[in-house]
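Let's study my pick:
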Amino acid sequence: MSQLDICQVAHGYRTGGLLRRGGWLQVLDGIDLTLSVGQSVGLLGSSGSGKSTLARLLLGLEKPRQGQVRFAGQDVSQLRGEPAREFQRAVQLVLQDAPSAFNPQRSIAWSIAEPLRHLSQMNQAAQHKRVLQLLEQMGLRAEHAERLPHQLSGGQLQRANIARALAISPQWVVLDEALSNLDRVLQLQLLQRLDALRRETGTGFVLISHDLSLVRYFCQRVVLMSEGRIVEDRPVDQALAFEHPVGQQLQRAMLPERPKQRLPAAQPATAQA
């Protein structure tokens, strides 16, 4: 198991088109973050705070303008050959838009097994067995394996999407607003399953969200971002004591817990005249 380090990362994008001179839009500025295997970390912040950009850097999908993302002490952007394949196996991503992650003309089983075909030495029989195991872990049935994506509900498709991310037993899974389209009951069911997996296998999770309730429910640590910076990093049991205004706003946006009330006693039925 290796450590994932974000070291003094700054990143941004050029503005302007082909025919006019643009500038530079700074998105991340001086990010330092260490992710340990076996821990669920909530990456919290309002829209535009840089959470999704940081996720792309964590996956090696973009190279930071300054600083480094390091896997096992090595700069991710410099990995080649087997070290690069090891990194691809180690970190997986689940996005909010589950349908876009599937080939509409291929079965669910085919899509879930795709990482196994490219990043493992499993034969077809072993791949199929692994797919069925993953479906069961995510609360789906074996019959879902041969269905096409449009034959599953949104919640079922997102569970299959998470199953695919887990196929090669990664060290970390980045959930980038992956639960935001699901109802609250299904969100909690999925988080319970993922937490059981974390305890069993040591898989770490990065839950990117603006929903403090989910972060408090699932994570052991919460990292608060604002305007491209990490402004607070604390144990999740202190998440209701944010000092930064953004954290306080997210706290106020939480749904209040309903007080427990006893239901009124049933009234005896009256006889009909």
Remarks:
- The chain has a mean pLDDT of 89.
